Amino acid sequence: MSRGGTGGRQRVRTARGRTAASTRWLERQLNDPYVRRAKAEGYRSRAAYKLLELDERFGLLKGAKRVVDLGIAPGGWTQVVRRRAPGARVVGIDLLPVDPIDEVTIFQMDFMADAAPAALMEALGGAPDLVLSDMAANTVGHAQTDALRTMALVETAHLFACDVLRPGGAFVAKVFAGGADSALVAEMKRNFATVKHAKPPASRKGSVEWFVIAQGFKGRAAASAGEAETAED
């Protein structure tokens, strides 16, 4: 399937039925150091290193006892949680099937479904310290539409986080280039002590993804006040 290229880079031979785009994707995978490292260290995807790098910078998992993983498939982020906070209870949800992870409750359902938040919280058994969202809407090929669809997921995840987080907790979500929109950032700043955007080194340079990191949840009272202010506006 592949052969050595110059400088040790692997090149993918053309194959019947394989498109040029799929050939480029396969070649990129073969030469991606994070993909090789994930295989060597037992992570299900290179995305695990995005959370590892964010945790190194922001200390997200220090002392975490309960964690929610929205968009858990294939499970790399939850693997990081289990290794860095082995005593934490973790629940996850995704539309896609996910292979079991020891001591993790996984729901295969739509996070936007009415029953999803209650199911997650019942399984978690208490307020989480951290809500993670690696969710992104399926792309349709129109950049503005794709960004709006993903931002709707981020907004819903933020509302969920404000409903369930313990005071002092944190919320992390994937957003597209440009970060969360200004209205959402303003709302987060009302609800959290700090709100920052970051692009960890494991996120490919050509990727439009960024992450918003909100820490120091001020509590449900602050979130309710923010909702009331928004309603008045």
Question: How would you portray this structure in words?
Answer:
This protein is an alpha/beta fold and 233 residues long. The chain has two domains: 30 residues, no CATH class; 188 residues, Rossmann fold. Helix content is 40%, strand content 21%. It contains eight helices and nine strands. Strands 5-4-3-6-7-9-8 form a seven-stranded mixed beta sheet, sandwiched between helices. Strands 1-2 form a two-stranded antiparallel sheet. It starts with a strand and ends with a helix. The N terminus is likely disordered.
How is the CATH topology of the largest domain named?
A: Rossmann fold
Radius of gyration: 19 Å
Largest sheet geometry: 7 strands, mixed
Give the class from helix and strand content and strand pairing. alpha/beta
Strand percentage lies at 15-25%
Which sequence of strands runs across the widest sheet? Answer: 5-4-3-6-7-9-8
Shape: globular
How many separate structural domains? 2
Number of helices: 8
Please summarize what this structure is.
With 233 residues, this protein is α/β, with parallel strands linked by helices.
Topology:
Elements: E1 2-4, E2 10-12, H1 20-30, H2 33-41, H3 48-58, E3 66-70, H4 76-84, E4 89-94, E5 104-108, H5 116-124, E6 130-133, H6 143-164, E7 170-176, H7 182-191, E8 192-198, E9 209-217, H8 220-232
Parallel strand pairs: 3-4, 3-6, 4-5, 6-7
Antiparallel strand pairs: 1-2, 7-9, 8-9
